[in-house]
Amino acid sequence: MAAIVRLSSVCRRGVHPLIYQSTLLARPLVVPHKHQEQNYLLTARIHASQTLNASADSKAASLHWTAERVLSILLLAMGPVAYFHPGPAIDYSLAAALTLHGHWGLGQVFTDYVHGDTKIKIANAGLFLLSTVTFAGLCYFNYNDVGICKAITLLWSK
């Protein structure tokens, strides 16, 4: 802020620095395209985004982002609850929350790094299969063994 005030006091004295000239600030940057002689405005290309016009998709994405954050906070809160008050309700809640958290996390990795329609379909099918097997395995462990809470307590006790 002090630099702007100082620069404006210099400009009032009749000295006009190159970076403060209004013609340089108002003039858009124009670059020629490699294969054509016509110039393109960079500012026009920046504002031509399709995601700005997708209001229904952005609402769903916003809700999904919020749900991911709420689940992460719930997982943080479930740790101490699972340690101090272990039980079947917490075991199955942890199984569902951990599976959903892993499903959403791997889904984002696949979205970022898997390209091509066929590869995306195969990756999503594999993700659903992995999530189903994970949830079924955790439920099986909760029902037929000591459960997630007791298993973690047993790991820490030794």
Supply database-style keywords.
single chain; 158 residues; mainly alpha; two-stranded antiparallel sheet; 7 helices; 73% helix; 4% strand; globular; disordered N terminus
Protein topology:
Blueprint: H1 2-12, H2 22-26, E1 30-32, E2 39-41, H3 42-46, H4 55-84, H5 88-113, H6 117-144, H7 148-157
Antiparallel strand pairs: 1-2
Overview of the structural elements:
It is a single chain. The chain is mostly helical and 158 residues long. Helices cover 73% and strands 4% of the residues. It contains seven helices and two strands, in the order ααββααααα. The chain has helices spanning 2-12, 22-26, 42-46, 55-84, 88-113, 117-144, 148-157, and strands at residues 30-32, 39-41. The chain has a two-stranded antiparallel ribbon with strand order 1-2. The model is unreliable at 1-8, 22-27 and 41-53 (pLDDT under 50).
Q: What is the 3D form?
A: globular
Say how many strands there are.
Answer: 2
Helix/strand structural class: mainly alpha
Strand and helix order:
HHEEHHHHH
Nearest-integer average pLDDT: 78
Q: Percentage of helical residues?
A: over 70%
- Residue ranges: pLDDT <50 for 5 or more in a row? 1-8, 22-27, 41-53
Question: How many H/I helices?
Answer: 7
Arrangement of strands in the largest sheet: 1-2
